[in-house]
Amino acid sequence: MKRILYIFGVIGVLALLQWGLTAVLLDGPVRQGPYYYQILVLAGINIILAVSLNLTNGIAGQFSIGHAGFFAVGAYVAASVSYYGGSAIRAAVSFIPPMGQDAVVLLIALAAAALATALAGLIVGIPSLRLRGDYLAIVTLGFGEIIRVLILNIDAVGGARGFSGIPKLSNFFWVYLMAVATVVTVWNLVRSTYGRAFLAIRENEIAAQAMGIDVTRHKVLAFVIGSMFAGMAGCLFGHYTMYLHTNSFTFVKSFEIIIMIAIGGLGSIEGAVLGAVLLTVLPEAFRGFDSYRMIIYSLALILIMIYRPQGILGQKSLFGKKRRKSATIDAGPTGAKSVAAETGVAGKQ
Amino acid sequence: MLTLKNVSSRYGAIKALTDVSLEVEKGAVATLIGANGAGKSTTLRSIMGLCQPYAGDVVFEGKRINKIPTHKIAAMGIALVPEGRAVFSNLTVLENLELGGYMQRDGKKLKRDIGHVHEVFPRLKERQAQMAGTLSGGEQQMLAIGRALMAHPRLLLLDEPSLGLAPLIVHAIFDAIDRINQEGTTVLLVEQNANLALKRSQKAYVLETGRIIMQGSSVDLANDPRVKEAYLGE
Fold first, then answer.
1. Which of A21, A68, A86, A150 is the most exposed place for a label (fewest CB within 10 A)?
2. pLDDT for B153-180, tens place per residue?
3. Residues 186..215 of B with a Cβ closer than 8 Å to A: which?
4. What is the rounded distance in angstroms from the CA atom of residue B172 to the CA atom of residue B24?
5. pTM score above 0.80
6. Domain B2-231 CATH (choose: 3.40.50.10540, 3.40.50.300, 3.90.1210.10, 3.40.50.1820)
7. How far apart are CA B53 and CA B47, in angstroms?
8. Could you state, in order of their start, the residue ranges of all structural domains in chain A?
9. pLDDT in tens, A247-285
């Protein structure tokens, strides 16, 4: 009951924000309002991408650099659904008002994107997650590029011309609804037994296995969930920009997402959100410097990496609540004497 | 309880074990001694399914367990304390123990198990909120053993628990292993410290370049001139 109330609360607040932002930024008095609105929306999409990649890379420790590939699969599958099947879907639900029809088309496209990318994640994940470390990175990098080239050669989705004529169905409301859903899902996952298994796998695979954790299954699961959210981000992206081109999905995009989670703090959900917002806003904020902006942007990244190599938030709040609780579980008196004895000996090791 | 019958394992083209047969009786402490690279760790890895023997059988409580995935072997009641401790460095001591009880889904029982580990290793209770990576070597070894205990193993595999530890700590660790054994857990111990391992076990096997070259009661082996010369430094 409480949960349902929360859900309606979030939907209400986002709908209100959507209405307010439309009034102020899109139709309102603010100069360059639509530009700010777009930055907001793109930041939301990047939040979904960063938080989902953080699940695979930061929490389960499986270094994937093909996130843009899944982003692309989701974007193109969803766009195809609404472009080719949009009118059929609308006809089927013609009894509800047009705004509702939009929502239905978008939700079906979202579901299709989620399904397609989860499947893609499974196909890529099962063979490559059996490998260790670098191999996964190489395979995912390859996958991203293969997908891009593949799409470039499919004429039905525009090929090299790009995919235009995608209906504008997504907006601030949908993007942030999905962003909240992503954060909540990953948050809950990390605190579940699955999350524990992910952390154990990241820390030491052999020990994790010896403890009864099915390593391959959990790795694939983390990978598939991460890919699925990237696909849904793709759906929202395509239906916002109304045009897709494979240039938006090169490996540079994958690295951008990796930078977001590295800057924010690998493994920290809050860090991923912060990194996503920062990396969307920073390049825009420096637009005034014209062509120097990328230099300033790079410098900012280098400085952060020098002074906060663990990311802005580090792993600090990964377990915020749980850590505090566990610290109080029958915390016995600290045996100062024995500690001293141990450290005295331990010092020599 | 555990029987290895002519087990042979290899890493790629390199043979690590040849025709290894051994038997661990219920309630006993058995030990595998041998030099570096003799195949001691590989034997444990072959039991645990971390490396698949290409010939021979591993039988645990009457069931053939080779070709069963590691996590299922763990669920059958075998726990491994890996070489070099392998604690989860970036998690707290308590979280490490909780992960050791991964298969225990009952929160109350999990707490009781943690209490038991704290009883065996009081140090772990003092350090429970600390990151495992910041513990001393001895404490990490205690944590690794405690974490394995969380799964209520009937057979505990220990891979070089004395590795890199000061003598005082090593004795504390071995006292804990004795206690764990007395509480009903069968132990298979792999050690380079042959002297200590032979003192603390009932049955021993000597491995050399992947073959068992000697076996017998630990007392007999400790008095065997060949063992004395090669492994006890006398």
1. A150
2. 999 999 999 988 999 999 999 999 999 9
3. none
4. 24
5. yes
6. 3.40.50.300
7. 9
8. 35-250
9. 999 988 999 999 899 888 888 899 999 999 998 988 888
